[in-house]
TrEMBL record:
It is an enzyme of class 2 (transferase). It comes from Marinomonas fungiae. Keywords: Acyltransferase, Transferase. This is L-2,4-diaminobutyric acid acetyltransferase. Its EC number is 2.3.1.178. One of its GO terms (biological process) is ectoine biosynthetic process. Coiled coil: none annotated. The gene is ectA. Belongs to the acetyltransferase family. EctA subfamily. It comes from the Bacteria. Pathway: Amine and polyamine biosynthesis; ectoine biosynthesis; L-ectoine from L-aspartate 4-semialdehyde: step 2/3. Residues 6-167 form the N-acetyltransferase domain. It holds the Pfam family Acetyltransf_1. GO terms for molecular function: diaminobutyrate acetyltransferase activity.
């Protein structure tokens, strides 16, 4: 897929169901309810990004500014359709959000990753390198303690502090 033909923009509510379908075809991501995806595209539009080619949604980053600390952008999910992988789209989407004027005060990127998600570790390790920032890993939600054994441990990955990202 030609990366130059992929446009990035803030999500709109009409993207909600396409996001639901995109996440479904991006294992190991957990699917959310379509209602949750609609909220991500509406209330959290300023802190997320949609990547489209023509009328097709090929990538998405959902996230929010942490309610207890507005210096932290918490990335909820990154999804890139198989057809668009390997051309730098995930990193381009993350960068595009960090460049927004309203992100001037953001100094940390946080996300959570399960131990077996190599692509995700690869993506965020690479992002930390690009931001020239330290990366720390701690347990966020434990398999037994929080998930009652039904989900692998989610590690909190914290990148930062980094300088504001410019155009
Ligand atoms: C993870 C995912 C978002 C990567 O998308 P992508 O557009 O192909 O990623 P990029 O091309 O921007 O690659 C970014 C970095 O991640 C690394 N990476 C990407 N896929 C990788 C993989 N399968 N294994 C190891 N590293 C990987 C790349 O090497 C690159 O690092 P570099 O620039 O230093 O070489 C995509 O594979 C995906 O949607 N997977 C399923 C959902 C998922 O696991 N999401 C995880 C985040 S919540």
């Amino acid at each position: 897929m030609d990366d130059n033909l992929i446009e990035l923009r803030k999500p709109v509510p009409k993207d909600g169901m396409d996001l639901f379908e995109l996440v479904k075809r991006c294992p190991p991501l957990d699917t959310n309810s379509s209602y949750c995806n609609l909220l991500q595209c509406d209330h959290f539009s300023d802190t997320g990004v949609a990547a489209t080619q023509g009328d097709q949604l090929v990538g998405f980053v959902s996230g929010y500014l942490k309610p207890s600390d507005c210096q932290v952008w918490f990335v909820w999910q990154v999804a890139v359709g198989e057809e668009a992988r390997g051309c730098g789209l995930a990193k381009r989407m993350l960068r595009s959000v960090l460049k927004r004027a309203e992100f001037n005060q953001v100094r940390y990127l946080e996300t959570s990753i399960t131990p077996d998600n190599e692509a995700s570790w690869g993506l965020f390790t690479s992002m930390a390198r690009e931001l020239q920032a330290p990366i720390e890993k701690t347990v966020l939600f434990d398999e037994q303690q929080h998930f009652k054994g039904r989900h692998k441990t989610e590690y909190l990955v914290r990148i930062g502090p980094f300088n504001s990202v410019s155009e």
